[in-house]
Amino acid sequence: MSTTDQVYPPSAEFVAQANANAEMYQRAADDPTEFWAEQARRLDWATPFSTVLDWSDTPFAKWFADGKLNVAVNCVDRHVDAGKGDRVAIHWVGEPGDTRDLTYGQLKDEVSKAANYFTAIGLQAGDRVAIYMPMVPEAIITMLACARLGLTHTVVFAGFSSAALRARVDDAAAKVVVTTDGQYRRGQPAPLKSAVDEALGSGDDAAPSIEKVIVVRRTNHDPDLPWVHGRDVWWEDTVEESSFVHEAEAFDAEHPLFLLYTSGTTGSPKGIVHSSGGYLTQANYTFHNVFDHKEGRDVFWCTADIGWVTGHTYIVYGPLSAGATEIVYEGTPNSPDEHRHFNIIEKYGVTTYYTAPTLIRTFMKWGKEIPGAHDLSSLRLLGTVGEPINPEAWRWYYEFIGGNRCPIVDTWWQTETGGHMLAPLPGVTACTPGSAMGPLPGISAKIVDDAGNELPRGEQGYLVLDKPWPGMLRGIWGDPQRFKDTYWSRFAEQGWYFAGDGARYDENGALWVLGRVDDVMNVSGHRISTAEVESALVAHPAVAEAAVIGAADETTGQGIVAFVILMEDAEPNDDLIAEMRNQVAVDISPIAKPREINIVPELPKTRSGKIMRRLLKDVAEGRELGDTSTLVDPSVFEAIRAQRA
Ligand code: ATP
Ligand code: MG
Question: Which reaction is this enzyme known to catalyze (predicted)?
Answer without folding.
Answer: acetate + ATP + CoA = acetyl-CoA + AMP + diphosphate
